[in-house]
TrEMBL record:
Keyword hit for Hydrolase: yes
Higher taxonomy: Bacteria, Bacillati, Actinomycetota, Actinomycetes, Propionibacteriales
Species: Acidipropionibacterium jensenii
TM stretches of this protein: none
Superkingdom, taxonomy of origin: Bacteria
Stated name of the protein: Alpha/beta hydrolase
Length: 316
């Protein structure tokens, strides 16, 4: 594997993971799909952590890497196909018809990290926090534990929305999986975190040309299938830490109070769904937490990191 200077986070290095078995869709440009592995330095310790991002996201949180490194772990971030550093002009951003397809890049990353480390802990945010538990259920004993930051393990919305989402999405997906769903669009989350909107963070805009990150029927169908598997129980045996904001605010209209809430997911439903992940669960609710808890206000994220550190010291 060839490591080069990372083009996004100064001082980090980056390597591509070729995915020769990854399925392409009509209109994709020529060439293999790839994933990316990002790290601050070559291996130094025997313990490692692998981080997985959420929907329409990429890795840029150097402060998260610094925190993990302070626990005595080598930090790595995995970017999935069609995201971030892997997304090229003409690709269907974020597209996947089955979340199990991501086993290709997760297995490759785990093998690469495992060659230099004795234990690997996983960390997933939002959609990454759904993908990783499903992977762990299929690959028991590959990781020593998992930290979930606002994992998307249940659907937000009204009772009617949640009842209708599955049948409608399946029907549309069977007719045309890549159909874009006409969902309401209000991105209060970006306003709460991006510096240009008064937030704290300079977040890179991904190279998403054309349709960018739109919700397609087949992708949402894959996510809902993952939710159904969680509801049935994943039976994960290793320790799990789930961290959620203390409250959600899913209003369409912006309010400054959204800078202290999850504006993306229904945290009450996520808390209830967490018990289906495995038998050894620690659940922490964070007052003032954003959807991505590690992007919360400084005093809030200090508390988030303290909870993570305490759990790592106890169980990893």
């Amino acid at each position: 594997m060839r490591w080069i200077a990372d083009p996004v986070v100064p001082g980090f290095e980056w390597a591509r993971i070729a995915l020769p078995r990854a399925a392409k869709v009509p209109g994709d440009p020529e060439g293999l799909l790839t994933a990316s592995l990002i790290r601050p330095h070559p291996p130094r310790r025997r313990r490692a952590l692998l981080y997985l991002h959420g929907w329409s996201d990429c890795f840029y949180q150097a402060h998260l890497s610094d925190e993990v490194e302070s626990w005595g772990m080598d930090f790595h971030a995995l970017e999935l196909r069609r995201y971030g550093r892997n997304l090229v002009d003409g690709q269907m951003a974020g597209w996947i018809p089955d979340l199990a397809d991501y086993d290709q890049e997760i297995n490759a990353a785990m093998s690469l990290i495992g060659a230099d480390h004795d234990e690997v802990t996983l960390m997933g945010h939002s959609t990454g926090g759904l993908i990783l538990p499903l992977w762990m259920a299929r690959h028991p004993h590959r990781a020593s534990g998992i930290i979930l930051n606002s994992p998307w393990i249940d659907l937000q919305g009204s009772t009617m929305t949640r009842l209708m989402a599955g049948p409608v999405t399946r029907a549309v997906s069977q007719a045309s999986a890549t159909t874009v769903l006409p969902l309401p669009s209000h991105d209060n989350y970006s306003r709460s975190v991006r510096r240009e909107f008064g937030g704290e963070w300079a977040i890179p805009f991904q190279k998403s040309h054309g349709d960018a990150f739109v919700v397609r029927a087949g992708w949402l169908n894959a996510v809902l299938a993952g939710h159904a598997m969680v509801e049935q129980g994943l039976g994960i045996e290793v320790p799990i830490l789930t961290l959620l904001s203390a409250r959600s605010d899913l209003s369409a209209t912006w309010s400054e109070t959204m800078r202290g809430a999850d504006t993306v997911l229904d945290v009450s439903r996520l808390a209830a769904a967490s018990v289906h992940l495995g038998r050894h669960l620690t659940l922490v609710r964070v007052t003032g937490g954003l959807h991505d808890l590690v992007l919360s206000a400084p005093s809030v994220r200090a508390g988030v990191f303290a909870e993570m550190r305490r759990w790592v010291q106890a169980y990893q």
